[in-house]
């Protein structure tokens, strides 16, 4: 990890490139940007420092992220609106802030460094802690409830779809067997069960075998994919002409949803066979990235947590009449 003072060693991922991609949309007289995953406020701070007229609306469902960023961004308090909410409520947040039209939006998906590093949040298989994994600590559903109450079939689906765990039925089977003896309440016990369920021959490769199961549970507990499915279209719809969105995802499911949402809007939807394209069916966006961009080798050497990052961006080129 990096060594920037006062940020808990947190390094914003692909920062230069994010600034470069969003920049052309943020240099007007009174631009508005939404950071839908405020976290420690790293990207937001750089945006506010770079664009002196910028108003930033920062959203995070983790109350500790809002608390931290409120302190960090206090020099810019007259230009920031920080909201404890899920990005799936983006429309409401913009309406309440009185800024239904925006010029930029940033999604830096997934978990933050403190969520992973603070053992008691229960996200990490490397510490022993209660099985929690809630980003929003006021929400009811925890990983403990998922692990102890979901059917073997539901657990299999989650582990396979959200964790890409090829031994999902074996892991789900052992979870249900073990929880019948005694409820599974700690990250350590769950990690041990996963290790036991995975065949020894495959355990030797591919890092900690609990990684995929923990990712899957985290996505389920926080309904991460449905939040993205609601938030990204809402942000795209709110963009003014020339407005830009950048999305950093960290696993293939997020990246696939992002790609689908962006490419759907960059296509001409005229019915086939027309001599001239219909203006109302012209694309409303153009892609700014060719495929997904990856962090540089140099960034990876500095910040190993950037390893799985994929960056996509698009620009609004047409607004509906
Ligand atoms: C990778 S961190 C963001 C880091 C941030 N860009 C920075 O530079 O400090 C992701 C953040 O998104 C938040 N988050 C995840 N899903 C969310 C959602 N649906 N709505 C709001 N915040 C969410 C997490 O709580 C976490 O703080």
TrEMBL record:
It catalyses: cytidine(1402) in 16S rRNA + S-adenosyl-L-methionine = N(4)-methylcytidine(1402) in 16S rRNA + S-adenosyl-L-homocysteine + H(+). Belongs to the methyltransferase superfamily. RsmH family. S-adenosyl-L-methionine binds at residues 41-43, 60, 108, 115. Signal peptide: none annotated. It comes from Nonomuraea solani. This is Ribosomal RNA small subunit methyltransferase H. Its EC number is 2.1.1.199. It is found in: Cytoplasm. InterPro entries: RsmH, SAM-dep_MeTrfase_MraW_recog, SAM-dependent_MTases_sf. GO terms for biological process: rRNA base methylation. Its main location: cytoplasm. Pfam families: Methyltransf_5. GO terms for cellular component: cytoplasm. Specifically methylates the N4 position of cytidine in position 1402 (C1402) of 16S rRNA. Keywords: Cytoplasm, Methyltransferase, rRNA processing, S-adenosyl-L-methionine, Transferase. One of its GO terms (molecular function) is rRNA (cytosine-N4-)-methyltransferase activity.
């Amino acid at each position: 990890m990096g060594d920037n003072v006062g940020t808990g060693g947190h390094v914003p991922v692909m920062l230069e490139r994010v600034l470069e991609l969003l920049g052309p949309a943020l240099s007007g007289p009174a631009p508005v940007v939404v950071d839908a995953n405020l976290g420690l406020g790293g990207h937001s701070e750089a945006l506010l420092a770079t664009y002196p007229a910028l108003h930033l609306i920062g959203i995070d469902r983790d109350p500790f992220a809002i608390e931290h960023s409120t302190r960090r961004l206090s020099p810019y308090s007259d230009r920031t609106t920080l909201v404890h909410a899920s990005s799936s409520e983006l429309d409401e947040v913009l309406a309440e802030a009185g800024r239904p039209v925006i010029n930029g939006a940033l999604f830096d998906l997934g978990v933050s460094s403190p969520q992973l590093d603070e053992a008691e949040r229960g996200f990490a298989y490397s510490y022993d802690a209660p099985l929690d994994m809630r980003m929003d600590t006021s929400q009811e559903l925890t990983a403990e409830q998922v692990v102890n109450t979901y059917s073997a079939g539901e657990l299999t689906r989650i582990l396979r779809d959200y964790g890409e765990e090829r031994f999902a039925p074996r892991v789900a089977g052992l979870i249900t067997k073990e929880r019948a003896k005694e409820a599974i309440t700690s990250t350590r016990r769950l990690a041990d069960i996963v290790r036991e369920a995975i065949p020894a021959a495959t355990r030797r490769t591919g890092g900690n075998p609990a990684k995929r199961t923990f990712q899957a549970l985290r996505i389920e507990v926080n309904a991460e994919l449905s939040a993205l499915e609601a938030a990204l279209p809402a942000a795209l719809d709110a963009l003014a002409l020339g407005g830009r969105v950048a999305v950093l995802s960290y696993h293939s499911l997020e990246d696939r949803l992002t790609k689908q949402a962006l490419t759907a809007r960059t296509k001409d939807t005229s019915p086939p066979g027309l001599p001239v394209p219909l203006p109302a069916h012209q694309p409303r966006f153009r892609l700014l990235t060719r495929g997904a961009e990856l962090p540089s080798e140099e960034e990876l050497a500095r910040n190993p947590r950037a390893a799985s990052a994929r960056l996509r961006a698009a620009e609004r080129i047409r607004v509906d009449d």
